[in-house]
Amino acid sequence: MINKVLIANRGEIAVRILRACRDLGIKTVAVHSTADADAMHVRLADESVCVGPPQPRESYLNIPAIISAACVSGADAIHPGFGFLSENSVFAHMVKEHGLVFIGPKADHIAMMGDKIMAKKTFARLGLPMVFGSDGALNNIDKATKMADEIGYPVLIKAACGGGGRGMKIAQSRQNFAEAYETARHEAGIAFGNDQVYLEKYLSNPRHIEFQIISDEFGNAIHLGERDCSMQRRNQKIWEETLSLVITPEFREKFGQKIARAMGELGYVGVGTLEFLYENGQLYFIEMNTRIQVEHPITEMITGIDIVREQILVAGGNRLSLSQDDVMFRGHAIECRINAENSDTFLPSAGTVTNYHCPGGPGIRVDSALYDGSKVPPYYDSLIAKLIVQANDREQCLARLRRALGEYVIEGVDTLIPLHQNLADDPDVISGKFDIHFLERKITGKT
């Protein structure tokens, strides 16, 4: 049984985890950098430990400091949240080696899914459909060019390790393949310390669909339906919805069961998300995230299931508290990521929040660590809040979203609220006619 959790993260996800722990009667320890000494997660936790200066590598990515903080505070488990160390298999292994519970999957599974080539091979063996591409990394330009010719242009060059759109380039033809290939390898090497890349057929107008799963150490695995994360800028999600407009109930049930069986066969323990591209009625596996997702609240809103609570209980050796038959989907939900960025230029904005008022009313949820006078440091990800809206159907959900965006006040820093207001009124968004390229086309004015 877990009695005290150290939360190895910051911002809204640290507050989200803290609340789940409190509901379970579990004590919490917040870690923080010197820049976050007055942050909300520090104020709300039972204890706090400073783990270093503002730079992430010296604080939130400082494995020895974080494990030391857990040991000194008497924590018996560590929750990594998302980002930072959440998908670091070395960290997960070290947590276990120090006699602590890592609230996440086994280190071997994190390593396996962190290698996208290995992940694809694993799920292909377990029966999931794949985008046509190379069987492994291509570290020779001649072999890569030959494979690209075989796949057919356009092709997508992707980093074998990592994500977030870094180390990812499109080659529209043989003429620009070599440049795109070398650029992708260079970016991958800088971002992930590994310049291996592989190739996939580039799908022209796909949607980005992901399935949420939870499984325990007793072989029980369930899915919580899918999320449509097609609204992206530079491969970064901005707006997410559930349930998807393109997935039928019959397809959801059949495909979800296939995924759950695969996770059971794999022996996966914890929460995770399998990501797919959807085009012409087919889903194609692209990667798995072995952590809680930023967009998990919309799934919670339509299922009534506290995913973080289940994650903590499963990590503590408990069986899943529900079966697949217990999972019911109610209405529609949308999440808007409120980043501290300018809505026109997308430049990050740091500063002090001088006025803060979050929206309310039926079906409205805000996950944030902001308050009047809180600081938005320049050192971390720009996500500062998530506006989540749920209603009986998508039309009502969009109406509530417009109201909530109109009520939301964040002054002192720029935010993406104006962008989301624009999207909520866009005819193509209202009709559901969008794919992963929609937002980029809208921003650039291209059709």
How helical, in percent, are the residues? Answer: 25-40%
The domain tally reads 3
Output mean pLDDT: 95
Strand content: 25-35%
| Content-based structural category | alpha+beta
Task: Provide structural commentary.
By secondary structure, the protein is α+β, with helices and mostly antiparallel strands. It contains 15 helices and 20 strands. The strands form five sheets. An eight-stranded antiparallel sheet has the order 13-12-9-10-11-14-19-17, sandwiched between helices. It has a five-stranded parallel sheet with strand order 3-2-1-4-5. A hairpin with a 2-residue loop joins strand 12 and strand 13. The chain is globular and about 60 Å long. The relative contact order is 0.12.
Give a brief description.
The protein is built from 15 helices and 20 strands.
What attributes does this structure have?
447 residues; alpha+beta; Rossmann fold; Dna Ligase, domain 1; 3 domains; 8-stranded antiparallel β-sheet; 5-stranded parallel β-sheet
Sequence-ordered SSE layout with sheet pairings:
Elements: E1 4-7, H1 11-23, E2 27-33, H2 40-44, E3 47-52, H3 63-73, E4 77-79, H4 89-97, E5 101-102, H5 107-114, H6 116-125, H7 141-151, E6 155-159, E7 168-171, H8 177-192, E8 197-201, E9 207-215, E10 221-233, E11 236-242, H9 249-266, E12 270-279, E13 282-289, H10 296-303, H11 307-315, E14 332-339, E15 351-352, E16 355-357, E17 364-368, E18 375-376, E19 383-391, H12 394-407, E20 409-411, H13 417-424, H14 427-431, H15 438-444
Parallel strand pairs: 1-2, 1-4, 2-3, 4-5
Antiparallel strand pairs: 6-7, 6-8, 9-10, 9-12, 10-11, 11-14, 12-13, 14-19, 15-18, 16-20, 17-19
Helix pairs in contact: 4-5, 7-8, 12-13
